[in-house]
Amino acid sequence: MKFGSAFFGWLTATGTAVLLTALLAATGTAVGLGNQVDPGEAADAAAENAATIGIIGGIVIALILLIAYFCGGYVAGRMARFDGVKQGIAVWLWAIIIAVVLAIITAVAGAQFNVLGNLNSFPRIPIGEGDLTAGSIITAIVAALIALGGAILGGLAGMRYHRRVDRAGLGR
Q: Are 123 and 64 in contact (CB under 8 A)?
């Protein structure tokens, strides 16, 4: 594993996730403004359809994570040249390590230094900051597995590029 390549893959994944989330939020806002929806009516409709909104929101977050970590794995696989699976796993490990470090800093320093909590542009797993429930634990595990799968697939795609270049250069 080349952790430098994986770090830049993680940066790419994080940046892609932030940009996709911002694009999605802007699209939702534009649709709401275009339809001239009354905020009170929208809140009532959201309360009535909370289960549907939760499922759709979960699917959208899963897609954002898959695309973002695919991009991060691709960058790491291209930079490292070989072992795309290892590079994808390393991108995912960077995400886990940084999340653990930020959680420790937040626990020690307090909520005022909760960086991800204060950034409202990063996709958040719908887990409350209180007690964890079985559903929230399953959601976190599924999100982590989706990110891992995307990073591995991206690493393989990045490595595949170099395989094609090597074949073309060797005249096979």
A: yes
CA-wise closest residue to 124 among 25, 6, 46: 25
Q: Whole-angstrom Cα distance, residue 79 to residue 77? A: 6
Q: What ranges do the domains of the chain cover?
A: 3-170
pLDDT digits (tens, 9 = 90+) for 116-137: 566 655 555 555 555 557 777 7
**Residue listed under structure tokens 């909370």:** 50
Closest by Cα among 92, 95, 104 to 151 = 92
pLDDT digit string, tens, across residues 17-65? 999 999 988 887 776 655 666 666 656 665 666 566 667 778 888 999 9
Q: Tell me which residue of 144, 154, 121 sits closest to 19, measured CA to CA.
A: 121
User: What count of other Cβ atoms lies within 10 Å of the Cβ of residue 13?
Assistant: 29
End-to-end Cα, the chain, rounded Å = 28
128: tokens are: 């409350």
The CA–CA distances, whole Å, from 7 to 92, 114, 151 equal: 9, 22, 12
Q: What share of the chain is helix, strand, coil (3-state, %, to 5)?
A: 85, 0, 15
CA distances for 70 relative to 6, 104, 119, 162, angstroms? 12, 27, 23, 17
